[in-house]
C-alpha cells in the first residue's frame, strides 16, 4: 500500500464536493464547509430525492457550484471531481426508498460508492468521507445494549428493505477499506444515527414521527404511536453531523469507522410527548395504535444506545445539540417554511 499524503485536509482555502448535497445532510454540510472558509464547494446531485428548495439558502454563495449528475455515470463523476481536496459522499437510497425500488437502490448504494472511490483515485482526492448508518447493526429484538463499532449485523425478523439498506452500507464501507488497502485512499466512515433537523424530508422512517406529531397536534388531533411506544430511537441533529463531516476531513484519522449519534436515545413515546409539548400542546396524550402490516415501520424491541465515544478519539467529535434544543430548531424551521408557502 502506498500512502501519498497525510490524511488531514485543511478546510480554509480548500476545494470540496458534497455528493448527494441537495438534501438534509448535504445542505448542512455545504453550509458548514463554507462557514469554515472553503474556497469552493461543488454540490453534486441527480435531484432524484433532493430539491432546489433544500439548497436555496446556499446557492447564491459564489463559492458554490451545483453539478447535476448521477453517481452511476462514472464520466460525470470524473469530470466533477477534478482539482478537489476532499469529497463527502452522501447520495444513497434509505430503507423506505429501497422498499420502493430495491434494484436501483442497491446499484446506487454499491456501484455508486465504487464509482465515487474510482473518481477519488483517478482525481487524486486526498480524503473521502462516506456516510454510513446505524442500519449496519440491523433491526429487531437482538439489537440492544450499547451498540459499538464492533457490534455485528442482526437481520432476523427485520423488514427486507431494512436488511438490503443495512447490508448495502456494510458493502459501501468495505469498498472504502479496499481502496485504502489497494491504493492508500484516505477515508473516514461515519455511521450516522437517525438524522433530524432543518430541511428534513419524508424518507427516513423514524423521523416521520416528529413531523406527523407536529402536524397532528396543530390540527387538534392526538398524535399516534405504533405499538406501545417503548422502543428506542437514537437521533442526531443535522448540524452536529455537518460538523462531524467537516471534522472527519480535518482530522488525522484514516481507515476508521465511527458512530455519530446524538447525546442520548429516546423512546417513541417520550419523543412524541416532547414534540407535543414543544408544539404547545402538552395535554395531547399520544394514542397507541396497532401496526399497519403494509407499511415499513422500523421498530426495535431492544433498548439500545449508539455509543459515539470512538468518534471523540478518532476525529475529536461529540454531539452538542440536545434533543429538546434540536427539536425546537427543527419545529421552528417547519413553521417558518409553512408560513412562507402560505404567503406565496
Ligand atoms: N436521514 C437519515 O436519517 C440518515 C440516517 C443514517 C444515515 N443516513 C445516510 O446519510 C446520507 C444522507 O442522508 P440524507 O437524509 O441527507 O439523504 P437523502 O435521501 O436525502 O439523499 C441524499 C441525496 O442523494 C441524491 N441522490 C440519490 N441518488 C443519486 C444518484 N444516483 N446520483 C446523484 N445523487 C443522488 C438525492 O437526490 C438526495 O439529494 C445517506 O447516505 C443516508 O444513507 C441518513
Automatic annotation (TrEMBL):
Which spans of this chain does the record mark as coiled coil?
none
Give the residue range of the signal peptide: none
The record's Pfam families line, in alphabetical order, gives: Epimerase
**Pathway assigned to this chain's UniProt record:** Bacterial outer membrane biogenesis; LPS O-antigen biosynthesis
Q: Which InterPro entries match?
A: Epimerase_deHydtase, NAD(P)-bd_dom_sf
Highest taxon, organism lineage: Bacteria
- Any idea where the NAD-dependent epimerase/dehydratase domain is? 17-253
Return the similarity comment. Belongs to the NAD(P)-dependent epimerase/dehydratase family.
- What is the recorded name of this protein? Epimerase
This chain's source organism reads Bradyrhizobium retamae
Amino acid at each position: 500500500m502506498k500512502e501519498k499524503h497525510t490524511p488531514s485536509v485543511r478546510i480554509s482555502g480548500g476545494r470540496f464536493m458534497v455528493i448527494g448535497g441537495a438534501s438534509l445532510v448535504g445542505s448542512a454540510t455545504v453550509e458548514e464547509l463554507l462557514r469554515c472558509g472553503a474556497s469552493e464547494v461543488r454540490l453534486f446531485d441527480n435531484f432524484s430525492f433532493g430539491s432546489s428548495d433544500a439548497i436555496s439558502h446556499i446557492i447564491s454563495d459564489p463559492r458554490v457550484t451545483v453539478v447535476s449528475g448521477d453517481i452511476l455515470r462514472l464520466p460525470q463523476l470524473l469530470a466533477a471531481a477534478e482539482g478537489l481536496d476532499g469529497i463527502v459522499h452522501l447520495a444513497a437510497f434509505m430503507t423506505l426508498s429501497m422498499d420502493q425500488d430495491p434494484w436501483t437502490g442497491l446499484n446506487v448504494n454499491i456501484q455508486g460508492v465504487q464509482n465515487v472511490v474510482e473518481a477519488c483515485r483517478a482525481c487524486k482526492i486526498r480524503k473521502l468521507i462516506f456516510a454510513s448508518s446505524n442500519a449496519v447493526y440491523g433491526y429487531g429484538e437482538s439489537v440492544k445494549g450499547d451498540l459499538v463499532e464492533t457490534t455485528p449485523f442482526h437481520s432476523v425478523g427485520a423488514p427486507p428493505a431494512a436488511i438490503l439498506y443495512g447490508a448495502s452500507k456494510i458493502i459501501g464501507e468495505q469498498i472504502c477499506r479496499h481502496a485504502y488497502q489497494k491504493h492508500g485512499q484516505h477515508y473516514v466512515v461515519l455511521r450516522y444515527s437517525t438524522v433530524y433537523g432543518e430541511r428534513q424530508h419524508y424518507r427516513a422512517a423514524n423521523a416521520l414521527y416528529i413531523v406527523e406529531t407536529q402536524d397532528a397536534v396543530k390540527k387538534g388531533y392526538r398524535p399516534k404511536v405504533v405499538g406501545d411506544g417503548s422502543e428506542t430511537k437514537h437521533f442526531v441533529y443535522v448540524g452536529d453531523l455537518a460538523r462531524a463531516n467537516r471534522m472527519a476531513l480535518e482530522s488525522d484519522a484514516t481507515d476508521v469507522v465511527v458512530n455519530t449519534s446524538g447525546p442520548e436515545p429516546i423512546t417513541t413515546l417520550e419523543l412524541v410527548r416532547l414534540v407535543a409539548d414543544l408544539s404547545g400542546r402538552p395535554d395531547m396524550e399520544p394514542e397507541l395504535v396497532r401496526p399497519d402490516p403494509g407499511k415499513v415501520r422500523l421498530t426495535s424491541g431492544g433498548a439500545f444506545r449508539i455509543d459515539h465515544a470512538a468518534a471523540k478519539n478518532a476525529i475529536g467529535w461529540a454531539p452538542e445539540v440536545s434533543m429538546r434544543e434540536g427539536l425546537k430548531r427543527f419545529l421552528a424551521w417547519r413553521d417558518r417554511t409553512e408560513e412562507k408557502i402560505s404567503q406565496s
